[in-house]
Design goal:
It is built from 8 helices and 9 strands. By secondary structure, it is α/β, with parallel strands linked by helices. A 5-stranded parallel beta sheet has the order 3-2-4-1-5, sandwiched between helices. Strands 6-7 form a two-stranded parallel ribbon. The chain has a two-stranded antiparallel ribbon with strand order 8-9. Helix 3 packs across helix 4, helix 6 packs across helix 7 and helix 7 packs antiparallel against helix 8. It is elongated and about 55 Å long. The termini are far apart.
């Protein structure tokens, strides 16, 4: 039988919805409601999410602590000290599972090195959600996250990936999508692709089936 959660001195990585708030699991809801503090990328955004989920009011609820790439060097020792003092701490990202393309990775490594217990509360992930609904091969895949924003560096990275036989999964910001698709077509050829947006939301969209078709679609929308 699983012990009571959240437990003292444990770091919890909690998956939060990537769009549809109904995807938050009962276990995740319970942990977020009862930890001592929550480390998050944006306290305002996460505060609103918790409030909308009925987990936090202005007067009560776990303390929110900003934790992002610009302050992680200072925050990690602070969070390790809080764990050593017996606090239960949850880490969340703006959406999905923390630790993927965000500072959660460094905190987990530091907590493990410090002998702390780290537990993941599974939840939505944009990576696997996009992959399994794409129609592309899922048995083996390669996640590359965000490619470099500068064109020459991005193209150089794509040239390194040109021979990769596994399905590639990439993240990109909306304002750089056209540039990425153009570079993908130039460097990798007209491959099969699924460009997914607004995952789990009412207007979820998947565009393909090839890079040329996706590029033509988004150019017409620009």
């Amino acid at each position: 039988m699983q012990g009571a959660e959240p437990a003292a001195g444990v770091l919890y990585l909690v998956g939060t919805p990537i769009g549809n708030v109904g995807d938050l699991s009962p276990r995740a809801r319970h942990v977020l409601a009862h930890v001592d503090r929550i480390a998050c990328e944006d306290t305002r955004r996460s505060g609103l999410l918790l409030h909308n989920l009925g987990l936090r009011s202005r007067e009560q609820g776990p303390r929110l602590l900003s934790f992002h790439e610009h302050n992680q060097a200072a925050r990690i020792p602070e969070l390790l000290q809080a764990l050593a003092a017996g606090e239960a701490i949850a880490v969340i990202s703006d959406a999905g599972l923390p630790g993927i393309s965000d500072p959660g990775e460094a905190l987990v490594a530091a907590a493990r090195a410090d002998g702390r217990t780290v537990i993941c509360i599974p939840g939505p992930s944009a990576v696997t959600t996009a992959l399994v609904s794409s129609g592309l091969p899922t048995g083996r895949f390669c996640f590359e996250g965000f490619l470099p924003p500068k064109a020459n560096q991005r193209r150089a990275r794509l040239q390194e990936l040109a021979g990769e036989p596994r399905t590639l999964v990439l993240f990109e910001a909306p304002h750089r999508l056209l540039a990425l698709l153009d570079d993908l077509l130039s460097e990798l050829g007209d491959r099969h692709v699924a460009v997914t947006r607004e995952l789990t939301k009412r207007h979820e969209q998947q565009v393909g089936p090839t890079l040329a078709a996706a590029l033509a679609h988004f150019r017409s929308q620009a």
